[in-house]
Design brief:
The structure holds 3 protein chains of 3 kinds. Chain A is of the alpha/beta class. Chain A contains 11 helices and 11 strands. In chain A, helix 2 links the parallel strand 1 (33-38) and strand 2 (64-69). The longest helix of chain A is centred in the last third of the chain and has 20 residues, at 297-316. In chain A, 51% of the residues are buried. Chain B is mainly α. Helix content of chain B is 72%, strand content 1%. Chain B starts with a helix and ends with a helix. Helices cover 57% and strands 0% of the residues of chain C. The N and C termini of chain C lie far apart (58 Å). The chains are: A alpha/beta, B mainly alpha, C mainly alpha.
Chain lengths: 319, 496, 181
């Protein structure tokens, strides 16, 4: 079985490379067996991303993959492992979300993004504000007017405290000079349940968390915290259009171990940049309402530098 | 709403040998995953995920659901045999199944766990098929205040747990509540009581404490006692008799209802349902004194309840598209991969699939009953392993379990630490059960208390002005006071 | 006086006070809620100290108040004193039988076993799963009372392999690998 699979994979592998990819891909990637690690437990966001990436690479290149859940310590377990125990040969990648920046800022002495190799940013997770269909607020302006009339009168649910949604909500309150009650939950799903039960007035989440309800019309998007409107919900304005340029930077990407070879790095990035239309990768990001937002190693690193400073300020103000 | 054609098609889909084969495989894998502490349903399901990609969605999902249900049964097996739950949901099972097995009735204990699991699973499937949408609507009425009340209600059961000294019982409970506060403060996202260790950022897993306080402590007690060649004097692989099964039928029915209701509320889970069902079984029992010493009702109640939570958890998963647990999250991810989108519409858009899942679940319960009862005599032989090997094996399993949870040596040492603590507690008559109960419920109580107070903007009356919350809290107070009152009344009568 | 109750009561009292002090370092309110991360732990630490005091005081007077259903237990036969007017209270003269600390073979086995388990956690990353487990399990089997060498060896290898097969092979768990060689 295993042998058969390798023969098949060799055949499929030969095809794209025979027709010569770009020069940067002189390096062979992906390798025959690939480990995709994540800090999230089975069923978590990072886990689902890596399982879909694994399957996409398996189907496209015929390689074998393993998804490795290095759970614990709010991502610190996975980061320490990546920084100290992984060979920089391109056989191991790890998923990354803002958690990997936030945790080292909370606890001293943990490896940060500077101790590993950022390879690529793959997606931006759009942050949106949505309300129940029975809510009296039809537009973002009405919602904000109500908040202005009654400071701390409205409650907004978020997935968890100290998360990026918390930061976006805080920036939103600062930019608009409004006061909301922030209600953290045990994950985005719980916040959606609270909204469906109308125990809170709105949630600030990725639309993927409540997609079936948003499409069925039981929930309604009022505003989008990114530069452009969402394709799936073209009626919801961006906050910038309303005069408050609050943008969320909830990235999803991959890191590698420290000291990776430059050519290898480019080869991995080139493959990752090229698979957005392959299945099941495409189904995954469309269904999860992610925006493809590819950045190569250097741009991703620069982006992380900026994000890290913003997160540092945010955490300093949390307690 | 109910389409006969869709039901018929779904039934024919499920009854094929192809689907049945994978259902049986799923259940068997689930039982093994459940037996091994530290391996939970979510891990098991994500392991089979890659193998299911070639299958049709209904078959793949039925296999996963089979694994999930089998896992709930396996957790109880470990509880009965080695005094530690193989899965979180088996936590309440050990109170009575372990004494029963130690009295020589290993076959009876395991057989009853299997039957109760299958009954809970089967009946909750029927309840699911009939009540999914209304139940989902009801679950939405639960807000933070109600979840807090449920937590307090669960905690009120400490009053009826056997304790030699009530102050020691109280201290054990409070210690459990304190352990839960270690980790990340859920309302600031900042570390709390972590002593600068990143290993503690996610808190201490409740399974780690359980494995230490029950399994390792038990090993230490046995080691100190000595007597290497002594075996369990009486030993029987016999399954429970019909009369015994009949005697626990009311308990199983009640516990199924409890499990279904608790499971339908996202965020609660199998272990909480099992504890509540155990307590209710005791309250309704004609022989409450037997609880803790091998009561058949005490074995059946938590197992029916924790298997019923699977049917319950399918309610928010199918009707709302929201996973209530790790295992449900993996199943949701798989559904999305297959291009299915759970939510209220799935009942009208994909009726064949939904009914297939219902049939698959119902058949899974039957498969569990058959496979479980066939396995029972073999599993029961574990108690006959000579002591030196059995104790070493339990110690080894405890370490593997800790490693399986996070892979950190820190957690392995934590298991040992809690083992020593559990040993000292037993020697000094501090009861471990209230501590475990507090561990299961503590997080739910603290977070929902704080969340409710945000929602009410600091007004404490929110807990008593909301009708559901007020009712549950009132019942909680009654069930806390009742066991004390009863003993007072009995003492009076005895004196008169 | 029940000495073990009084002593453990004082230990718990100290622990409760320590938790109170520890919680002082937690900020009294967070950005999202006014109760803060301090309220709940401090509330519990107060309860902890009150319960400890109760244990000390009742222990001092030699009283045990039982809860739950244990009062019906035959092994703790209540010695009713004057019709048990306190209701549900079981007064036990346990003071006399407070176990004097003795140190026999059982305690030696116990300490040896704990030490072996602790050693295992250090050997695992050093020697890897298979070697460390086989060695440790062999020692454990000996401590637990099996002295025939062949059986000890077979038992240790069998347990090591069985756990390896179940956790490592079937459920694909990462087992510790050796760093020494």
């Amino acid at each position: 079985m295993q042998h058969l699979r390798k023969i098949v994979s060799a055949a499929t592998l030969a095809l794209p490379f025979a027709f010569g990819m770009s020069a940067a891909q002189a390096q062979d990637w992906p390798p025959q067996s690939l480990t995709l690690a994540t800090h999230s437990s089975p069923g978590g966001g990072g886990d689902i991303m890596m399982r879909n990436l694994a399957r996409t690479l398996e189907e496209k290149f015929g390689v074998t993959t393993v998804v490795d859940n290095r759970v614990g310590g709010s991502g610190a377990v996975a980061m320490s492992w990546l920084a100290t125990q992984v060979e920089p040969d391109g056989t191991t990648l790890k998923s990354v979300t803002p958690t990997q920046l936030l945790t080292p800022l909370r606890v001293e002495g943990l490896p940060s993004y500077e101790d590993v190799t950022p390879i690529a940013r793959l997606f931006l997770d759009p942050t949106t504000l949505y309300v129940h269909d029975d809510s009296p607020y039809q537009t973002m302006e009405e919602f904000m007017d109500a908040a202005r009339a009654d400071p701390r009168g409205l409650s907004i649910g978020i997935g968890s405290a100290g998360s990026l949604d918390n930061l976006v909500l805080q920036n939103f309150m600062r930019a608009t000079d409004l006061q909301f009650r922030t209600v953290p939950h045990e994950g985005g799903g719980d916040a959606v349940v609270a909204l469906l039960g109308q125990h809170i007035d709105a949630v600030l989440l990725n639309p993927g968390q409540g997609l079936s309800h948003l499409e069925a019309g039981t929930l309604r998007i009022l505003g989008v915290f990114q530069e452009e409107r969402l394709d799936a919900f073209p009626d919801a304005p961006t906050l910038a259009e309303l005069g408050y340029p609050v943008i969320s930077n909830k990235f999803r990407g991959v890191f590698g171990p420290p000291n990776m070879d430059r050519e290898l790095l480019d080869a991995i990035a080139a493959v990752l940049a090229d698979i957005y239309d392959d299945e099941p990768w495409r189904t995954y990001w469309v269904e999860s309402s992610l925006n493809p937002a590819f950045l190569g190693p250097d741009e991703f690193k620069a982006n992380l530098d900026i994000a890290n400073e913003e997160f540092r300020e945010f955490l300093a103000g949390l307690n | 709403m109910i389409e006969v054609a869709a039901i018929g098609e779904a039934f024919l889909n499920v009854i094929t040998p192809y689907t049945l084969f994978f259902l049986v495989l799923g259940v068997v894998l689930g039982i093994v995953a459940g037996i091994l502490p530290g391996i939970n349903g979510a891990i098991g399901i994500s392991l089979i995920l890659p193998f299911t990609f070639g299958m049709d969605p209904a078959t793949a999902l039925i296999m996963m659901l089979g694994l999930w249900g089998g896992q709930n049964f396996g957790g109880g097996v470990t509880a009965a045999l080695i005094h530690t739950p193989g899965a979180a949901s088996g936590a309440a099972t050990l109170f009575d199944s372990y004494p029963l097995a130690q009295q020589g009735h290993a076959g009876k204990a395991l057989g009853l766990i299997c039957i109760a699991s299958a009954v809970g699973w089967f009946l909750s499937t029927i309840l699911l098929a009939v009540t999914a949408l209304p139940l989902a609507a009801f679950a939405l009425r639960f807000s933070a205040a109600e979840y807090f009340a449920v937590g307090i209600f669960g905690l009120s059961m400490v009053a009826s747990l056997a304790t030699k000294n009530i102050f020691k019982g109280a201290l054990a409970t409070l210690l459990g509540l304190l352990v839960v506060t270690i980790g990340t403060d859920p309302f600031s996202g900042m570390p709390r009581f972590t002593f600068g260790r990143f290993e503690l950022m996610n808190g201490i897993s409740f399974l780690i404490v359980m494995i230490g306080v029950f399994a390792v402590a038990e090993v230490l007690v046995q080691i100190q006692k000595g007597g290497a060649t002594e075996k369990i004097a009486a030993y029987s692989r016999a399954l429970p008799s019909w009369a015994e099964i009949r005697s626990v039928v009311p308990t199983m029915l009640r516990s199924t209802g409890i499990g279904m209701a608790v499971g339908a509320a996202p965020g609660a889970g199998g272990s909480i349902a099992a504890f509540i069902a155990y307590n209710e079984a005791k309250r309704f029992s004609k022989k409450p004194d037997e609880f803790g010493r091998g009561s058949l009702e005490g074995v059946a109640a938590p197992e029916s309840a924790n298997n019923a939570t699977e049917g319950g958890a399918m309610v928010p998963l199918l009707a709302l598209g929201i996973p209530g647990s790790g295992a449900a999250a993996v199943i949701l991810a798989a559904m999305i991969l297959y291009g299915l989108r759970p939510g209220p519409q799935i009942f009208t858009q994909e009726p064949v699939l939904v009914y297939s899942l219902f049939f698959g679940l119902a058949l899974g319960a039957v498969v569990l009953l058959i496979v479980g009862l066939l396995l029972t005599p073999w599993l029961a032989m574990v108690v006959r392993i000579p002591k030196p090997y059995l104790l070493t094996g339990i110690a080894g399993v405890s370490f593997m379990a800790a490693l399986a949870i996070t892979g950190l040596m820190f957690d392995v040492r934590l298991v040992l630490l809690f083992g020593v603590l559990g040993y000292i507690m037993r020697k000094l008559d501090f009861p471990p059960a209230p501590m475990i109960l507090a561990l299961v419920l503590g997080f739910m109580i603290e977070t929902n208390m704080r969340r409710a107070l945000i929602l009410s903007d600091g007004d404490w009356s929110i807990f008593v002005t909301r009708p559901i919350s007020a009712t549950i809290l009132a019942v909680a107070v009654l069930s806390f006071v009742y066991p004390m009152l009863r003993s007072v009344i009995r003492a009076r009568r005895a004196a008169a | 006086m029940i000495r073990s109750n009084v002593v453990s009561g004082f230990v718990c009292l100290g622990f409760g006070a320590y938790v109170w002090w520890l919680a002082q370092a937690v900020p009294p309110m967070t950005l999202t809620d006014n109760l803060g991360g301090r309220f709940f732990p401090q509330l519990i630490s107060i309860g902890f100290m009150i319960a400890s005091l109760g244990l000390i005081i009742t222990g001092f007077f030699g009283i045990e108040i039982s809860g739950g259903t244990v009062a019906q237990d035959k092994s703790v036969q209540p010695r009713a004193e004057g019709g048990d007017a306190a209701g549900g209270r079981t007064v036990e003269q346990k003071a006399a039988e407070a176990p004097a600390p003795r140190f026999g073979a059982g305690e030696v086995r116990l300490l040896a076993f704990v030490a072996t388990m602790l050693a295992y956690t250090f050997l695992l990353p050093l020697l890897g799963y298979v070697v460390a487990s086989a060695l440790t399990f062999a020692v454990m089997i000996v401590i637990a009372g099996e002295r025939r060498p062949l059986r000890v060896a077979l038992g240790a290898v069998a347990i090591t392999m069985m756990l390896y097969a179940l956790f490592g092979v079937v459920f694909n768990m990462r087992l510790p690998v050796a760093s020494l060689y």
